[in-house]
Specification:
InterPro entries: LprI-like_N, Lysozyme_Inhibitor_LprI. The chain is built from 10 helices and 4 strands. It has 264 residues and is an alpha+beta fold.
Length: 264
Amino acid sequence: MAAPSRQFCWLFWLLALNCSAEEKIGPSFDCQRARLEIEQDICSNDVLARADQFIHDCYQALLKLSPDKNKLIAEQRAWLQSRNHYRDNNRNQRFFNNQEFIAGSYDEIVQLYDAFASRIAELFEQLPPSQQRQLREHYLRQMGFRNPPSNPVAKWIDQQERNYAFETLANDCNRVTWDVLRNDRGLAVVMNTYSYQCGGTSWSGTSLEVYCINHNQLTQVDASPLNNEFERVQAAQNPADQNDDQLIAFADRLSTNTLCGTTK
């Protein structure tokens, strides 16, 4: 396999920096006292632990604002009771939004992620925008996202990663990476790789995004005509010996003048 390009190395360094800086978040309770199965599940799964802590933080913030604290407390207790009996379909309706829990299936973890994500959305969306931003940034800092880079392409990727990290706070099934194939001469070419692995199912796919760079501003170009050729380049490679240089050569052949007009 050819040596990775400088663009690839730069992106992997950026991702490694974020990953290495990520802190373990949650759960909101002492795992040494965990007795219930769901508590042990949370303690053994970093995604569920982070989601549990986030739900707790949203709930505590809402308690300070709610004009009807008793109603909010009752709702949270009902959700926790349903969560605590998540394997009992006679008692878990609130936790799973009235969906049947399929015990012993590949989808167990998917259902758990979805249940936590649903409660996060319910609570988070009740917070005022200023507190949403504050809580969002607090968690992103703990997940390794701190000072955004100044390079316009790196800054754009950082923003995509921030958004995606927050959107998938309670979901470890999906993955998206942004690999820079080219970032020069007024043109940036980014390869998106999407993958899913959960519930006994896995798939992956890639696509291109092309941006013209003008005065440090990015303007997206319609890359749909290019993706067919891009897929042919990928298909021509030996999966056992992927050659990054072929993908980068494809990106280098793209014309700034053709795609960006007068953009330099």
